[in-house]
Amino acid sequence: MAEAILNGTVVDDGGGLGGLACEVRFRYGTTLAMGSFTSWKGSYYTGMNFQEIVSGLPGNSTIYFQAEARNIIGSITGGQLSFATSSAALPVVSTLPATQITETYATLNGYLAFQGDRPGSFSFEYGASPLYGMQTPWQEPASTGDYFYAVITQLTGGQAYHYRARFKNGGIITYGADMVVFTLSATGGLILIDENLELLLREG
Questions:
Q1: pLDDT (tens digit, 9 = 90+) per residue, 46-66?
Q2: CATH class in words for 1-89
Q3: Would you say residue 193 has pLDDT above 50?
Q4: CATH of the structural domain 91-185, one choice from 2.60.40.10, 2.40.50.100, 3.30.10.20, 2.40.40.20
Q5: Which long-range contacts (CB under 8 A, 24 or more apart) does 26-29 make?
Protein backbone atom coordinates (compact mmCIF):
# COMPACT_ATOMS: atom_id res chain seq x y z
CA MET A 1 0.00 0.00 0.00
CA ALA A 2 1.12 3.58 -0.67
CA GLU A 3 0.48 7.00 0.81
CA ALA A 4 0.46 10.52 -0.59
CA ILE A 5 0.37 14.13 0.53
CA LEU A 6 -2.50 16.04 -1.10
CA ASN A 7 -2.00 19.81 -1.42
CA GLY A 8 -4.53 22.59 -1.98
CA THR A 9 -4.87 26.38 -1.82
CA VAL A 10 -7.82 28.57 -0.87
CA VAL A 11 -7.95 30.86 -3.90
CA ASP A 12 -10.81 33.03 -2.60
CA ASP A 13 -12.67 32.60 0.69
CA GLY A 14 -15.51 34.85 -0.51
CA GLY A 15 -15.18 37.25 2.41
CA GLY A 16 -13.63 40.21 0.61
CA LEU A 17 -10.96 42.30 2.35
CA GLY A 18 -11.93 41.09 5.81
CA GLY A 19 -11.75 37.43 4.88
CA LEU A 20 -14.09 34.63 5.87
CA ALA A 21 -12.78 31.44 7.47
CA CYS A 22 -13.18 28.20 5.54
CA GLU A 23 -13.03 24.54 6.42
CA VAL A 24 -11.23 22.37 3.87
CA ARG A 25 -10.90 18.70 2.96
CA PHE A 26 -10.07 16.40 0.04
CA ARG A 27 -12.07 13.86 -1.93
CA TYR A 28 -10.05 11.03 -3.43
CA GLY A 29 -10.27 7.53 -4.85
CA THR A 30 -9.24 5.14 -7.61
CA THR A 31 -12.15 6.09 -9.92
CA LEU A 32 -13.56 9.38 -11.23
CA ALA A 33 -16.33 9.04 -8.65
CA MET A 34 -13.69 8.99 -5.89
CA GLY A 35 -15.70 8.15 -2.75
CA SER A 36 -13.19 8.69 0.07
CA PHE A 37 -12.89 11.88 2.10
CA THR A 38 -10.47 13.41 4.57
CA SER A 39 -11.89 15.16 7.64
CA TRP A 40 -12.97 18.80 7.49
CA LYS A 41 -10.46 21.13 9.12
CA GLY A 42 -10.06 24.92 9.47
CA SER A 43 -9.70 27.84 9.62
CA TYR A 44 -8.25 28.85 6.24
CA TYR A 45 -8.40 32.13 4.34
CA THR A 46 -7.64 33.40 0.83
CA GLY A 47 -4.11 32.45 -0.25
CA MET A 48 -3.53 29.85 2.45
CA ASN A 49 -2.20 26.41 1.53
CA PHE A 50 -3.36 23.19 3.15
CA GLN A 51 -2.42 19.54 2.89
CA GLU A 52 -3.43 16.11 4.09
CA ILE A 53 -1.62 12.78 4.20
CA VAL A 54 -3.74 9.91 2.87
CA SER A 55 -2.57 6.33 3.34
CA GLY A 56 -3.72 2.86 2.40
CA LEU A 57 -3.64 3.70 -1.31
CA PRO A 58 -3.13 0.82 -3.75
CA GLY A 59 0.28 0.70 -5.42
CA ASN A 60 0.77 1.17 -9.16
CA SER A 61 -2.62 2.87 -9.48
CA THR A 62 -4.11 6.17 -10.64
CA ILE A 63 -5.57 8.18 -7.77
CA TYR A 64 -8.09 10.96 -8.48
CA PHE A 65 -8.58 13.80 -6.01
CA GLN A 66 -9.96 17.31 -5.59
CA ALA A 67 -10.02 19.90 -2.83
CA GLU A 68 -13.20 21.21 -1.22
CA ALA A 69 -13.88 24.29 0.91
CA ARG A 70 -16.94 25.48 2.79
CA ASN A 71 -18.04 28.37 5.02
CA ILE A 72 -21.28 30.17 5.87
CA ILE A 73 -21.59 31.41 2.28
CA GLY A 74 -21.56 27.92 0.79
CA SER A 75 -19.21 25.27 -0.53
CA ILE A 76 -16.99 24.93 -3.60
CA THR A 77 -14.98 22.13 -5.17
CA GLY A 78 -11.67 22.54 -6.99
CA GLY A 79 -10.75 20.90 -10.26
CA GLN A 80 -10.15 17.17 -10.31
CA LEU A 81 -6.51 16.08 -10.50
CA SER A 82 -4.79 12.71 -10.53
CA PHE A 83 -1.45 11.08 -9.80
CA ALA A 84 0.04 7.62 -10.07
CA THR A 85 1.22 5.65 -7.07
CA SER A 86 4.26 3.43 -7.12
CA SER A 87 4.96 0.33 -5.11
CA ALA A 88 6.98 2.47 -2.66
CA ALA A 89 5.39 4.95 -0.24
CA LEU A 90 5.97 8.66 -0.79
CA PRO A 91 8.25 10.67 1.53
CA VAL A 92 6.78 12.35 4.60
CA VAL A 93 8.32 15.63 5.81
CA SER A 94 7.25 17.75 8.81
CA THR A 95 7.70 21.46 9.50
CA LEU A 96 8.85 22.13 13.08
CA PRO A 97 8.74 25.34 15.19
CA ALA A 98 11.43 27.91 14.46
CA THR A 99 14.21 28.58 16.99
CA GLN A 100 16.93 31.18 17.66
CA ILE A 101 14.56 33.99 16.71
CA THR A 102 15.79 37.59 16.73
CA GLU A 103 14.70 40.82 15.03
CA THR A 104 16.48 39.98 11.78
CA TYR A 105 16.97 36.21 11.56
CA ALA A 106 15.52 32.86 12.59
CA THR A 107 16.36 29.17 12.32
CA LEU A 108 13.75 27.10 10.47
CA ASN A 109 13.51 23.43 11.41
CA GLY A 110 12.16 20.29 9.78
CA TYR A 111 12.00 16.53 10.24
CA LEU A 112 12.04 13.78 7.60
CA ALA A 113 9.75 11.04 8.90
CA PHE A 114 10.16 8.89 5.79
CA GLN A 115 12.47 9.34 2.79
CA GLY A 116 10.65 7.14 0.30
CA ASP A 117 12.81 4.88 -1.82
CA ARG A 118 16.02 6.93 -1.49
CA PRO A 119 17.66 9.84 0.41
CA GLY A 120 17.18 13.33 -1.01
CA SER A 121 17.68 17.02 -0.32
CA PHE A 122 15.77 19.54 1.78
CA SER A 123 14.87 23.21 1.70
CA PHE A 124 12.39 25.72 3.15
CA GLU A 125 9.96 28.14 1.55
CA TYR A 126 9.19 31.33 3.49
CA GLY A 127 7.73 34.79 3.15
CA ALA A 128 5.43 37.41 4.67
CA SER A 129 2.33 35.55 3.41
CA PRO A 130 1.25 31.93 2.80
CA LEU A 131 2.33 32.46 -0.83
CA TYR A 132 5.93 32.48 0.45
CA GLY A 133 8.05 33.92 -2.39
CA MET A 134 11.49 33.07 -0.97
CA GLN A 135 13.36 29.82 -0.43
CA THR A 136 16.53 28.52 1.15
CA PRO A 137 19.07 26.63 -1.00
CA TRP A 138 18.60 22.88 -1.39
CA GLN A 139 20.86 20.93 0.98
CA GLU A 140 21.67 17.23 1.10
CA PRO A 141 21.70 14.51 2.07
CA ALA A 142 18.59 13.91 4.16
CA SER A 143 17.26 10.47 5.05
CA THR A 144 14.58 8.94 7.27
CA GLY A 145 14.80 10.18 10.87
CA ASP A 146 16.92 13.26 10.08
CA TYR A 147 16.26 16.64 11.63
CA PHE A 148 17.37 19.53 9.43
CA TYR A 149 17.45 23.32 9.55
CA ALA A 150 18.28 26.50 7.66
CA VAL A 151 18.93 30.04 8.90
CA ILE A 152 17.06 32.90 7.20
CA THR A 153 18.36 36.44 7.56
CA GLN A 154 17.55 40.06 6.63
CA LEU A 155 14.13 39.80 8.24
CA THR A 156 12.03 42.69 9.54
CA GLY A 157 11.47 43.03 13.29
CA GLY A 158 7.96 42.47 14.61
CA GLN A 159 6.89 40.67 11.42
CA ALA A 160 5.08 37.35 10.91
CA TYR A 161 6.71 35.00 8.41
CA HIS A 162 5.09 31.89 6.95
CA TYR A 163 7.33 28.92 6.19
CA ARG A 164 7.24 25.21 5.39
CA ALA A 165 9.79 22.43 5.01
CA ARG A 166 10.14 20.53 1.75
CA PHE A 167 11.97 17.41 0.60
CA LYS A 168 13.04 16.50 -2.94
CA ASN A 169 13.54 12.90 -3.95
CA GLY A 170 13.94 11.79 -7.56
CA GLY A 171 12.36 14.99 -8.90
CA ILE A 172 9.30 14.73 -6.63
CA ILE A 173 8.88 17.46 -3.98
CA THR A 174 6.83 16.84 -0.84
CA TYR A 175 5.92 19.57 1.64
CA GLY A 176 5.42 19.98 5.36
CA ALA A 177 2.57 21.99 6.85
CA ASP A 178 2.56 25.80 6.87
CA MET A 179 3.81 27.40 10.10
CA VAL A 180 4.38 30.99 11.25
CA VAL A 181 7.34 32.56 13.06
CA PHE A 182 7.21 36.06 14.60
CA THR A 183 10.44 38.04 14.65
CA LEU A 184 11.23 40.06 17.77
CA SER A 185 10.39 43.75 17.99
CA ALA A 186 12.90 46.47 18.88
CA THR A 187 13.20 46.96 22.67
CA GLY A 188 14.86 50.38 22.78
CA GLY A 189 12.04 51.88 24.87
CA LEU A 190 12.48 49.30 27.60
CA ILE A 191 16.22 49.91 27.78
CA LEU A 192 15.68 53.65 28.26
CA ILE A 193 13.24 53.01 31.10
CA ASP A 194 15.79 50.79 32.84
CA GLU A 195 18.46 53.46 32.50
CA ASN A 196 16.17 56.13 33.98
CA LEU A 197 15.34 53.92 36.95
CA GLU A 198 19.04 53.30 37.56
CA LEU A 199 19.73 57.06 37.44
CA LEU A 200 16.97 57.79 40.01
CA LEU A 201 18.40 55.17 42.36
CA ARG A 202 21.85 56.71 42.15
CA GLU A 203 20.53 60.23 42.86
CA GLY A 204 18.51 58.95 45.80
A1: 999 999 999 888 877 899 999
A2: mainly beta
A3: no
A4: 2.60.40.10
A5: 26/52, 26/54, 26/65, 26/66, 26/67, 26/68, 27/65, 27/66, 27/68, 27/77, 28/54, 28/63, 28/64, 28/65, 28/66, 29/63, 29/64, 29/65
Q: Inform me whether the pLDDT recorded for 196 exceeds 70.
A: no
pLDDT 10s digits, 72-122: 999 999 999 999 987 666 789 999 999 999 999 999 999 999 988 788 999
Q: Which position has the higher pLDDT, 73 or 189?
A: 73
Domain ranges of the chain: 1-89, 91-185
CA distance 112 to 28: 25
Q: Using the predicted structure, report yes or no on whether residue 192 has a pLDDT greater than 60.
A: no
